[in-house]
Amino acid sequence: MRKSRPRRRVAQALVEFALVGPLLMGLTLGVLQVVLYAHARDVVISSVQEAARLSAEDGRGLEDGYARARALVDAGLGRSLEPLAIDGSMDSELVVIHLDATLQPIVPLLGGLPLHADASVARERFRPAGG
Predict the structure, then answer these.
(1) In whole angstroms, what is the distance from residue 79 CA to residue 100 CA?
(2) Alpha carbon of 121 to those of 61, 62, 107: distances in Å?
(3) How far is residue 81's CA from residue 115's CA, in Å, rounded to a whole number?
(4) Segments in the chain forming alpha helices (H)
(5) Is 57 helix (H, G, I), strand (E, B) or coil?
(6) Measured between alpha carbons, how far is 52 from 68 in angstroms, rounded to an integer?
(7) Is residue 8 very low, low, confident or very high in pLDDT (cuts 50, 70, 90)?
(8) Tens-place pLDDT, residues 55-91
(9) Which domains does the chain have, with CATH numbers?
(10) Nearest C-alpha neighbor of 110 from the set 3, 55, 36
């Protein structure tokens, strides 16, 4: 009879692990996805800000900013953002850049996680003689 007790404990431990293991795995993947989403959001926001700043430089245009934003997103996130849509507008006073993308999740059953960022920067103007 003494040998049956350790078997029961092993069986009980296996059943408990079978119940708790998937919950822990789901929780771990969820926390990791939130962290990756926060990182992706930060990369997207900073790349749009840099794109707007570059586009606002004297002698530069929106295409320069778009190329810079794509390069920064590719460097920071690789191909985990698909599709990547960048557009914007520029007038004599202000540059505005918008970026929309979808982050591919860890578990592909969930569908994409949307990301959106906007940035606006006042345009540089050449002022002769500092005035």
Answers:
(1) 14
(2) 13, 12, 37
(3) 9
(4) 4-56, 62-77
(5) coil
(6) 9
(7) confident
(8) 999 889 999 999 999 999 999 999 888 889 999 999 9
(9) 4-130 (3.30.1300)
(10) 36
